[in-house]
Amino acid sequence: MRIQNKIALIFTALSAGIILALSIFVYFFASESISSGFFHRLEVRSDIVGHAGLQENKSLTSIYYDIKERHLGSLPYEKHRILPDPTDEATRKRLALPSSFFEAPQGDIPARFFNHDTSYVVLRIARDKRKIMVVSSALDTYGMQEMTNLKNLLIIGFIIAMVFVFTLGKLFSNEIFKPIRRIIRNVKGINAHNLHQRLVVEPTDDDVEALSRTFNDMLDRLEVTFEMQNNFVSNASHEFRTPLTVVSGEAELGMTMPGLPEGAKESFLNIYKEVEKLEHLTTSMLSLAQTGFDGKKENWEEVRIDELILSVKEAADRIMPDNHVTIDFDQLPDDESKLVVLGNLALLKAAFSNIVLNSCKYSDNKPVRVRISADAKYVIVEVADQGIGIPDREIGQIFVPFFRASNTARYKGYGIGLPLTHNIIRMHQGKVEVHSRVEEGTQFITFLPFKYSVFS
User: Fold this and answer.
1) Rounded-to-integer distance, Cα 66 and Cα 43, Å
2) How many angstroms separate the CA atoms of 339 and 305, rounded?
3) How far apart (Å, rounded) are the C-alpha atoms in residues 48 and 41?
4) How far apart are CA 426 and CA 36, in angstroms?
5) 422: Cβ–Cβ under 8 A, 6 or more apart, which residues?
6) d(CA 27, CA 38)
7) Where do the Histidine kinase domain residues begin and end (predicted)?
8) What does the pLDDT look like over 305-344, one tens digit per residue?
9) In sequence order, what E strands does 20-173 have?
10) Residue 456 above 50 pLDDT?
């Protein structure tokens, strides 16, 4: 997940937590307020009914009830029960209320109880040594409707708020990450071909400015390192080959000298063979090094992969005439532009030649199949053999220079071909996948972006 989206989600989650906590607080505060108000209204009516019940003069009793009805009105499902003897257990059981409820009221302080949406009030009233207990109950339908409306309002408000918060969070994070995205775009445009390019540093005196300066410092060091490597490769190419050529020539001349003892001839022959190996190793190492720097001297052009593979097959026929390499064209894309890559013909030929020749060598010239196909972005070249395979624990190291698998001791090699191939493919913005099983074979799958996908 992109950091920008993650920040928006975290911002939304934090806001949701705050708004939810506030909504719950408002809901319970309103519930307590409405419930307390309803209990108070029920207590007032209970008090009037209680005092009316203590009046011996029935005309005064009617006045109490008239005042109640005229000024207070009746509550929904309002009921009042006057208990002359609060200690009467039969009456208590008939009301189906807990015993503690009748013991709660002290003096003029009523007891409140809520059960199954019904509010109960118990009030003790005493006058002239007469004591009664009034049990009043009612249903707060208006209050429950108010709470339902409040709950729906809070839920709808919460959802709307989340939509706004997430939208604003996206806009906020988008604005915050604009400089980062600009840096990413600029860094993506910097490669081995234009290491001189630098990021634009704006004097904002913040972390973005520090990040840009850090990138520029790193690019300065990389450019110096690449230039040093470039100079080394250019000079070493001449400095290494010249003395090796001289030694090789002298050894060859020494072998032709008349009257030379057999021991000396054998020594010259060994020198000649070892110098030849050293020349091959030096050339391979220089090629490997050359794939690691800017490539400005390389000739980049349009290369058709099918034609390239055919030339690789021709080269393999010359080097190993008894090979069994076959090319499968059945899955070639209908769109020929998907076969064209932008790259260096010589390097690409060297890369695929290394793979094909390795497949022939390590399979003892068993059949090797090369298949060309394409997907939405890459032209794909699969090279499958029936050779000795690569141990699972060693597959991750085959592109390390000079590494050779543990089961390759009887085959001549230096461990440079595959690292060279890997570097060349990476230079062309491609990738290589390897699938292998010991004693069953190895499959190299190379992905190279075709020309128009590079610029899309």
Assistant:
1) 17
2) 6
3) 11
4) 76
5) 399, 432
6) 16
7) 235-452
8) 999 999 999 988 988 888 999 999 999 988 888 899 988 8
9) 79-83, 111-115, 118-127, 130-139
10) no
